[in-house]
Amino acid sequence: MESLDIQRSSSGFYSEADVSLKKRVRRIVVTGIGLIMFQQLCGANMMIFRAEEVFDGLNPVDDAPVRAPIYAIVLSATQVSMAFSRPMPSPPEYGIYTRYRNTWLIVSTRAQVLLCSISVELVEILGRKFMLITSGVGMSLCLLALIVHYALHTKDCFEFSEPDWHKYIPVILVALYTCSYSIGWGSVVILVYTEIIYFDKWFSSLIYACGQFVMFLLVYTFFNTNILRGNTYALWMYTATCIVSVAFVWCCVPETRALRLNRIQATFDDERKRYDRSTQQAKVEE
User: Which of 103-112, 177-186, 274-283 has the highest average model confidence (pLDDT)?
Assistant: First the structure.
């Protein structure tokens, strides 16, 4: 067996190309898993779909003009000024309250789609890594500012007479956080993932399914973490994840800007074909 290995090594079957291919495949797999995992662990889904619980778990805001737009403003920073352009109904008028909330939800969702479309166009100019790093830095700063705000303005300090603009700071920060998510980790991740994870469609689907499972775990355990340690613990975890994601993109994610998709795929195909030919030749000699 050792002689066979020596023959393979001397004949080039275990050549540098094979070793580099295995290393590259491992790097591609680790990069793909990291992209999908960080996309879920940054906390965007919690901040979007559990926005009311996040605000209530930290410092409850009982004013209807603040609580009603939370459902919608959290989806797009471009709707912050529009959401407060008209008075919101009081909580007892639940039917009108719900209609306002759904209206702003539809409008802000369309704005988020527009923002993602713009980021997809800018990614060819600014680059994938730049967009992902900018997105991670923006989310980290917004979450840190949100934690600092709630640390300085406790529940007892939330009784403002004039001015009461402090109540709107969390809403604006969460809106900016979601905006930062949309320009990078919300739209660019799928683009980078499909560019680099091409060598095996089945394996690519398995990695993406793992990411969806992580999202399920986050949604399932959110209320438990809220009961045990409070939402501040969740915000700190999301902040740390955003910071780690910046380092991960800087060190592990390759820049594929200015490379067409067919060129990236051709590169993977050529290397895999060389690897398959060497493997088949080794089996024949055995």
Answer: 177-186
